[in-house]
Amino acid sequence: NRPALIPVGGKLGVTSQAPFGAMNGTVVDTGLFEPGEGPAYVVQPVIVAGVIIDIVAWRTMHPDRWHLMTGLGWCMGEDALSLPPGHPVTFHATPLAWLASGGDGCCVLDWAAPELRILCGQAELAVTDPALGDLLRRKLAQTIPRIISKGMRHEWAG
Prior knowledge:
It is a single chain. The chain is α+β, with helices and mostly antiparallel strands. It contains three helices and eight strands; from the N terminus they run H-E-E-E-E-E-E-H-E-E-H. Strand 1 (21-27) and strand 2 (33-48) form a beta hairpin. It has helices at 8-11, 95-100, 130-142, and strands at residues 21-27, 33-48, 51-59, 62-68, 75-76, 89-91, 107-108, 125-127. The longest helix has 13 residues, at 130-142. A four-stranded antiparallel beta sheet has the order 1-2-3-4, with no helix packed on it.
């Protein structure tokens, strides 16, 4: 007799598992992760439209510090931004938090990426903690272009 298997993910509200693995490597001078000799990192593929465009790597001791392998990935779960209106996308603060959610929603990996402007087109953004909401507000405010008056004056009749 074998014991019954309990679907733990379902009990936690997680219905799928995002892919991840482990790889040895180091962070080079450019800030990118380079596989090879070095300590173990958790690695996760950054997938857009079914294509792996980058790998994000982080240490279990510091899940709030991560490094990209190519620098092309700006967001984990970018495809979630294509959901129809009325479905706010949930943002997670770290790749670990995104992984724990089963890959639901998004995690911004590069806060300086020009693609961040895409988020301004979303009607609503949901966040998993208030500090992430504050960071999103600050970063999105920086993506709004500055409007310059060219000195044209109009006289209004009234």
